[in-house]
Design goal:
With 146 residues, the chain is an all-alpha fold. The longest helix has 35 residues.
Length: 146
């Protein structure tokens, strides 16, 4: 009979981080290969904007038929996706930078809205808490957490 192997939390976390690093590297490697191949096809005239749009539509049609998504994206979304892909394929650095800056701006705005919506918790010193507790003694006991 084999004894179960015990593993420490540190070992488990180290293994998970190593696996995530490996997956991240693999993903970057795949993206680089895709970009290289797509640029070669584009330069040979074998790939154009309309090919990308049609492929996006087809991909989403298949995903919908498989039940992986509930609806296909609108034509505006297809256009935006194709434009983003073609910026990389064409190597349009200026447009890529603009898109990244716009994305970061929207992300910052969303984070600011989220922060503004969160309730604020103020922390008082123990002396202030004691004073407030004394003031409220006649009103049914302390309701302060400290």
């Amino acid at each position: 009979m084999q004894m179960p192997r015990q593993i420490s939390l540190d070992d488990l976390l180290s293994m998970l981080v190593a696996r995530i690093d490996s997956l991240s590297y693999s993903d970057e490697n795949h993206k680089t290969k895709f970009n290289i191949l797509a640029r070669a096809l584009y330069k040979k005239g074998l790939l154009d904007d309309e090919d990308i749009k049609e492929s996006i539509r087809e991909e989403h049609r298949i995903l919908k038929e498989l039940g992986a998504i509930s609806e296909v994206p609108s034509e505006d979304v297809v256009e935006a996706m194709a434009d983003s892909i073609m910026q990389w394929v064409k190597g349009d650095v200026n447009k890529i930078k603009e898109a990244m800056e716009e994305y970061e701006k929207k992300l910052r705005e969303a984070m600011q809205k989220e922060q503004a919506a969160k309730p604020k918790i103020d922390v008082a010193s123990p002396a202030i808490l004691e004073q407030l507790d004394k003031i409220n003694k006649g009103k049914g006991g302390s309701k302060l957490i400290y």
